[in-house]
């Protein structure tokens, strides 16, 4: 559970697709451009994902419940084609344009790139832990994990967003919106009927952010959970 | 959405596996036995499933939102191995023991059978619409639709129960519990970490029933939904 709670973004910074900067004649916009990219995660990204999950748990004050190891993730994720089951979009940022890395282009998904023009450059105290090993100056900044759900009323699949997380120093720049929008776009392209996720009822900033993105918060539904020994009891009884 | 709201069952009626009746020396228990079976649904069951979904929508006073046709269901369900994606357990009942129909036994799931001894036989006003075409005296009485979800904290899959429904004349006999227990048992057998579903906060009977089954109702989480034109807008913007 636990779609993280990105605070509402400020008035969005101007952005433009890579290669189409909105100022100047060379490929680097003025100011402090933050080149951002969303791509499908791969098994090589598991060390980053494990750290991001743990940071999300700390953010939600639920670190004691976050026990997934890299081995747990490796044995349960990336077992099927993207979008057919558990799927992760990874958010990467760089102070320089991304190299055109064809390894991240697939028939399933073409990476989404944006340039965010910032007034000040970002100081990332954890850059060393999140530097991408393949591209030296690229840093992992967040992720979204989602999977298909199903609406019997619509007779259509949708997506459920389990986690949405942006590392602290990259928040309030529209990156959470970029991640969630990528899932919504994918759902719309696939003809799916819904995107759903959960939010904590006291998190007014997150609720405002989600409503601004077009979502409704359903007031009457409560989530029921059967887990731990109470779940194991069903096996033991049979 | 919408795990239906079976009222809490009364003190469970005695039950025993088929072939092991709890009274008498022949294979038919005394009283009014209701032979019940849970098996994996197949594409042949879509007409029943479509009718059950519509009855669930009426039960929830949401019939206007229930627009799935048999064609919608046929094009979106049964596309992968059971338990890997959207999965349906069908509940059937009969006044006679089930024939040993090997067609419903698979390496994925062995049907679960129970005999429920009732004080009075059930009058089913819709029997004609729900008679199973293959087995003349077998009637479809309910279903549960579920699919894998994922807990990043546990690093494990689980199951999310989208719909749980028992037709009105078969309620209050423990059949809803039998369906939900079958999902919990399957999750436990697969080593999954959780079974989750949603309940309406005003449905005290359902909440009591679920708590008695070992579930916790999470008070703080709210479901967010992006659908319809608000979802389509993400495609149109790209």
UniProtKB/TrEMBL annotation, chains A, B:
<keyword id="KW-0808">Transferase</keyword>
<protein>
    <recommendedName>
        <fullName>N-acetyltransferase domain-containing protein</fullName>
    </recommendedName>
</protein>
<feature type="region of interest" description="Disordered">
    <location>
        <begin position="1"/>
        <end position="31"/>
    </location>
</feature>
<dbReference type="Pfam" id="PF00583">
    <property type="entry name" value="Acetyltransf_1"/>
</dbReference>
<keyword id="KW-0012">Acyltransferase</keyword>
<dbReference type="InterPro" id="IPR051016">
    <property type="entry name" value="Diverse_Substrate_AcTransf"/>
</dbReference>
<feature type="compositionally biased region" description="Pro residues">
    <location>
        <begin position="1"/>
        <end position="15"/>
    </location>
</feature>
<dbReference type="InterPro" id="IPR016181">
    <property type="entry name" value="Acyl_CoA_acyltransferase"/>
</dbReference>
<dbReference type="InterPro" id="IPR000182">
    <property type="entry name" value="GNAT_dom"/>
</dbReference>
<dbReference type="GO" id="GO:0008080">
    <property type="term" value="F:N-acetyltransferase activity"/>
</dbReference>
<feature type="domain" description="N-acetyltransferase">
    <location>
        <begin position="88"/>
        <end position="238"/>
    </location>
</feature>
């Amino acid at each position: 559970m636990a779609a993280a709670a990105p605070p509402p973004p400020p008035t969005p910074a101007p952005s433009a697709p890579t290669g189409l900067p909105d100022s100047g004649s060379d490929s680097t916009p003025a100011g402090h451009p933050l080149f951002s990219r969303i791509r499908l995660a791969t098994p090589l990204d598991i060390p980053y994902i494990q750290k991001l999950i743990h940071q999300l748990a700390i953010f939600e004050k639920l670190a004691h419940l976050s026990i997934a190891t890299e081995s747990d993730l490796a044995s349960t994720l990336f077992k099927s084609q993207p979008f057919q089951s558990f799927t992760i979009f990874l958010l990467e940022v760089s102070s320089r344009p991304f190299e055109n890395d064809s390894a991240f282009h697939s028939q399933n998904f073409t990476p989404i790139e944006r340039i965010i023009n910032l007034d000040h450059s970002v100081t990332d105290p954890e850059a060393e832990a999140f530097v991408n090993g393949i591209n030296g100056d690229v840093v992992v900044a967040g992720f979204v994990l989602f999977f298909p759900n199903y609406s019997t009323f619509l007779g259509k699949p949708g997506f459920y967003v389990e986690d949405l997380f942006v590392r602290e120093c990259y928040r309030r720049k529209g990156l959470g919106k970029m991640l969630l929008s990528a899932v919504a776009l994918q759902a719309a392209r696939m003809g799916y009927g819904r995107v759903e996720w959960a939010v904590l009822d006291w998190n007014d900033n997150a609720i405002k952010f989600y409503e601004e993105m077009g979502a409704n918060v359903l007031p009457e539904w409560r989530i029921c959970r059967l887990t731990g020994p109470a779940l194991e009891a069903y096996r033991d009884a049979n």
